[in-house]
Design goal:
Layout (H helix, E strand, L loop, with lengths): L4 H15 L5 H11 L4 H25 L4 H21 L11 H14 L2 H13 L2 H60 L1
Helix pairs in contact: 1-6, 1-7, 2-5, 2-7, 3-5, 3-6, 3-7, 4-7
């Protein structure tokens, strides 16, 4: 086993920045309002499982279905783009009539928000640089942070208040839009 604290820390910070669970608090609060309740444990565990599975099977899975990493990232950028538009414009594009807490916990929370194209493609690039066990520890640590944030999002909402949430929502909507555009631009070049 090649345990390395520096690798774990670097992989953790990279994933933490890409997942951006703090920035996703407005989306989490929004989902909680739509669904009534979000199963934090379920969302965090499912996101963790998706990330670990993708770490091992990602590249071969994409190859089997004939999709390269760049196409996957471009598709993911569209999802992020529409979520960002919802946040900025205050409209609902994703509408699920059967919106239960289970569905909200899995889609769009666990996937594609937490374990989304950004974090999944990041995992593939981390795998090229770091030892797998260090990446797994980094994913596990991120899952713990995600769980804590999901569990305390209603307390965070009380502290910030509805106006604060709206402001943060719009700001992070723009940031998410920028990430979507960057993800799109970086990967569309590779496709052509």
């Amino acid at each position: 086993m090649d345990f390395n604290v520096k690798e774990v820390f670097t992989a953790f910070m990279v994933l933490f920045a890409v997942i951006d669970i703090i920035g996703n608090i407005p989306i989490v609060i929004d989902l909680r309002k739509k669904a009534g309740h979000i199963q934090s444990e379920k969302a965090a565990i499912i996101a963790g499982v998706i990330m670990i599975l993708f770490l091992f099977l990602g590249k071969s899975l994409l190859t089997i279905i004939g999709v390269d990493v760049n196409s996957f990232a471009v598709a993911g950028s569209f999802i992020l783009f529409f979520i960002a538009l919802e946040m900025i414009l205050g409209i609902t594009l994703y509408k699920d009539d059967e919106s239960t807490s289970v569905t909200a916990s899995v889609f769009p929370l666990a996937f594609p928000l937490i374990a989304g194209p950004g974090s999944l493609t990041t995992l593939l690039s981390l795998r090229a640089e770091f030892h797998v066990e260090n990446i797994i520890i980094a994913v596990f640590l991120n899952v713990i942070v995600i769980y804590i944030v999901l569990k305390t999002s209603s307390k965070i909402e009380k502290i910030i208040g509805p106006n604060g949430i709206n402001i943060i929502r719009k700001i992070f909507g723009v940031i998410l839009l920028a990430i979507a555009v960057k993800l799109f631009a970086a990967n569309i070049k590779e496709l052509f």
